[in-house]
Amino acid sequence: MKIFCVGGAVRDELLGLPIQDRDYVVVGATSEAMTQAGYQAVGKDFPVFLHPITHEEYALARTERKTAKGYKGFQVHASPDVTLEQDLARRDLTINAIAKSPVGDLIDPY
Predict the structure, then answer these.
(1) CA neighbours within 13 Å on the CB side: how many for 19?
(2) Which CATH architecture has domain 2-107?
(3) Spatial distance between the Cα atoms of 102 and 110, rounded to a whole number of angstroms
């Protein structure tokens, strides 16, 4: 299981802005592993969990395929074999597709 900070927190840090909240993507894990580790499942449509202490959001790495119009028109595939790069590719803006490792390395596929 590998955990990366993603999205707005990484973007805001790079821009020198205050970080409002942090979101994380978890690569190489299952929903069962997350709940066994104490995370609380909260995602109805996506595999999203709350950290047991910080209550920050941790989502399993996933891919999405558009299947219909609207916000819910997606087919989601979340499994331990989804890579960080595949997860980052689904994000809305390239600046939101930058991840930060626990040791501070930036992963920017674009």
Answers:
(1) 13
(2) 2-Layer Sandwich (3.30)
(3) 20
CA distance linking residue 69 with residue 81, whole number of Å: 27
- Beta-carbon contacts of 102 under 8 Å, excluding residues fewer than 6 positions away, are 3, 4
**Each residue of 16-65: pLDDT tens digit?**
999 999 999 999 999 999 999 999 999 887 899 999 999 999 999 999 88
Q: Which residue has the tokens 């930058």?
A: 98
> What does the pLDDT look like over 57-86, one tens digit per residue?
999 999 988 888 877 777 889 999 999 999
Rounded CA separation 69/100 (Å): 32
Domain boundaries, the chain: 2-107
Is residue 13 within a helix (H) or strand (E), and if so which, with residue range? helix 8-15
Token pair 């910080």: residue:
54
Given pLDDT bands bounded at 50, 70 and 90, which one contains residue 100? very high
